[in-house]
Amino acid sequence: MNMNEVPAGAAVDLSAHAADFPILSRPVRGKRLAYLDNAATTQKPEVVIEAERRFYRESNANIHRGVHWLSQHATDLYEGARERVRSFLNAARVEEIVFTRGTTESINLVAQSWARNTLQPGDEILITAMEHHSNIVPWQFVCEQTGAVLKVVPINDAGELVLDAFDELLGPRTRLLAITEVSNALGTVNDVAPLIRRARAVGARVLVDGAQAVAHMPVDVRALGCDFYAFSGHKLYGPTGIGVLYARHELLQAMPPWQGGGSMIETVSFERSTFAPAPQRFEAGTPHIAGAVALATAIDYVLEIGLERIGAHEHALLARATAAVQALPGVRIIGTAAHKAGVLSLVVDGIHPHDLGTILDADGVAIRAGHHCAMPVMTRYGIPGTARASFALYNNDEDVDALVRAIRKAQDMFGGRR
Amino acid sequence: MSGHEGFGDLRELYQEVIFDHNRQPRNFHSMADADHVAEGHNPLCGDQLTVYLKVADGVVQDVSFVGHGCAISTASASLMTEAVKGRPVEEVEALFRDFHALLTDVPPEGRDFGKLEVLAGVREFPARVKCATLAWHTLHNALEGGGTAKTE
Ligand SMILES: Cc1ncc(COP(=O)(O)O)c(C=O)c1O
Fold first, then answer.
1. Whether A29 and B68 lie within 8 Å, measured CB to CB
2. How would you class B112 by CB atoms within 10 Å of its CB: exposed for 0-12, middle for 13-18, buried for 19 or more?
């Protein structure tokens, strides 16, 4: 059910929803904004902006500490948001949901609390060649700390995992598979469910990086069977500074805290402290309460539109953009997997991605140019970086056409068109 | 910030001289007998270059570079090599300071930047200042670091 695709070519009209996003009506550099940097962060609908504002105007207090009414009210909203996330991911229990600052912090939590205290010298962590730096560097820390070894599943020229290599690399020493569901640099959608099954069959735990998945397809952590699932609110039309770690209850209950402070303790004396049960044990200090509340609103917002419909709409935009840039001479798409999300990474002969980004920007077309925090992917393709357009529910054909026009203009300027 | 941005400003940034030096960078080769060498790297955009220098009697006798980067950084490196060749090191360092001010701050009055002036358009694109100054920072490091290395 995870890959519940709407048939190719099925037209989904989401045009009414662009008006939900106030920022889209502001001109940029005097031009209509075509915001195509959604893999970096999405824009926020009015309801999310309003939810955060309303929290501060009507509900603000610290949580889990006050006897007063507002504190209880804020706590209810915060814990309500946790329940909203649980149902969004279809987790079994609300205690399996930890609020973090984002995907990066969620992965670091697993690395420092679980992996660092579990792995032995010679144990193996299996990742893939398409991971974001945030799903590489925390494991390198763990390897240094424990003597574990990092193994990397390669990708082919299309940007798909080499599954034979996966099977070879997965072995009795594999203790963790850490894998992205969708590549932010290539757009590749990994069919993670069978890989999770194979990893668990050899006794490994599995962490799925869902940063690029949650806004584009339904996610069901129980159907996936993963042990950990991480995502960020800001890529799901929610606020920055709030994210989620899902962790299976048995694991989370047994994991030691990784940050100490208020809210995560049961009792403290100078001799010894005892810790609160999960998830509080992993939420030291005052969390981003308003962010969690607004994230719940963002989840409501996307579910109301429907993730299948959003995914289908983005696919249609991807198809249109792909066909248009393929027709341009000297343009090469990086990431041509059979199964892709709405990410179009490309390089243009004779034009550095950074120059392309600037020229597109002058026409109000916001894309990302660079390595997209996936330097090993760039190395794999022998390029310094790509120009990346990434789509969201509010994008439309006009945005795609503005992108293509601006690329042609850049080619004209650079004299690269033959 | 100028109010009217778009093609006009873009042409300010991407002048013909920039395209020319991007397509055919001058002094674009390594230098086996260089006495000062430094590498520059802009991790954000992947720009990478190496600057080679020969300095004698306090004067830059020869300078070259290799590497890859965007048009702004390549053209800037190329223009830099032309601008500093044959100049006293002190003047080169002063030129770097003034050039940096030209791109980011109040341009020094009365300074004739010659061809380097074409890079002034970068002012309107703060995200690109690092591209235009990478070669200069690297040159500066080569002059400083090279000196240090020799004393060992
Ligand atoms: C695949 C992937 N993983 C992890 C991250 C990190 O997310 P955050 O910066 O929100 O922690 C990103 C964000 O760019 C991403 O695209």
1. no
2. exposed
